[in-house]
């Protein structure tokens, strides 16, 4: 599932994604998109430009090279794709690529290891130092040399040195891994379960506010260990990329889960208040 937050119109010249506005996590309204996702928006629908064609016609890439190893301590070179969004390990990201320099990058990737670095950038804060490797798992090349791709988040990295900027950005990177949390694995499990409980409450109240059945959200952990689960939770906060970036940069699973727990708790406070208002003023709530 994913919490899909505000979806502005495209502003980037190289893909169909977009820059997201800053977000007050205590003033969100939730509405279900489908059985597997929740939309968090200001009454705006998420655009799915090209998505149907992408999922029905792309072919799976068969090439893969292990030149870039997540277990290596060596500094490696990685092509970078600055985007106004944050990719987390394990998350799926569909993109449409049509700017010339990134089409060049795609041709190179298809001949090598299909991996590039997704790194957050915006006009205010600039380009981040920490990003996530995206591996192309499906792609479609169009007649005009544009690409539809689906990539999956892999390991995190930190940029140590920019190697070149043309025709696209290439940097030396080092891999990031979470350090062991000081309070032990048992505490981590309990915290992860608390976060899952908050997510279920958010789904329940969201459904109620939007006139949907208050069904049990089921197993959101899906047997994930606390660290990958914390990345999954962070990936659901779409529309708040700066908060997502802060979560991505943390190197302690417990700290990340605590921050996510606080975010979800703030959201629950808002949803509870909104639900109470709806109960008292049902007609005014439905017309807003």
From TrEMBL:
Domain Lon N-terminal residues, every copy: 75-268
PROSITE patterns: LON_N
InterPro entries (alphabetical): Lon_prtase_N, Lon_prtase_N_sf, PUA-like_sf
Key words of the record: Coiled coil
Leader sequence residues: none
Coiled coil: 240-274
Name this polypeptide is given: Lon N-terminal domain-containing protein
Organism of this sequence: Mikania micrantha
């Amino acid at each position: 599932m994913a919490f899909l937050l505000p979806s502005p119109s495209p502003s980037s010249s190289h893909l169909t994604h977009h820059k997201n506005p800053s977000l007050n996590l205590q003033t969100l309204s939730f509405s279900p998109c489908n059985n597997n996702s929740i939309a968090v928006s200001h009454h705006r629908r998420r655009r799915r430009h090209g998505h149907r064609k992408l999922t029905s016609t792309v072919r799976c890439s068969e090439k893969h090279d292990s030149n870039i190893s997540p277990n290596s301590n060596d500094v490696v070179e990685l092509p970078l794709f600055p985007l106004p969004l944050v990719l987390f390990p394990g998350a799926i990201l569909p993109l449409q690529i049509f700017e010339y320099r990134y089409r060049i990058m795609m041709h190179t990737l298809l001949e090598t290891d299909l991996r590039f670095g997704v790194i957050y950038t915006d006009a205010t804060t600039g380009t981040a130092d920490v990003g996530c490797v995206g591996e192309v798992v499906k792609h479609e090349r169009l007649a005009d040399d544009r690409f539809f791709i689906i990539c999956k988040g892999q390991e995190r990295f930190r940029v140590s040195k920019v190697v070149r900027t043309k025709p696209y950005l290439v940097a030396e990177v080092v891999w990031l891994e979470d350090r062991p949390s000081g309070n032990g694995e048992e505490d981590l499990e309990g915290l992860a379960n608390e976060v899952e409980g908050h997510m279920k409450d958010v789904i329940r109240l969201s459904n109620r506010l939007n006139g949907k059945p208050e069904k049990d959200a089921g197993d959101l952990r899906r047997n994930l260990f606390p660290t990958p689960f914390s990345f999954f939770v962070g990936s659901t906060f779409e529309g708040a990329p700066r908060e997502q970036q802060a979560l991505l940069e943390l190197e302690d699973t417990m700290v990340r889960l605590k921050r996510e727990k606080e975010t979800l708790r703030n959201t629950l406070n808002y949803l509870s208040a909104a639900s109470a208002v709806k109960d008292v003023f049902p007609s005014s709530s439905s017309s807003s």
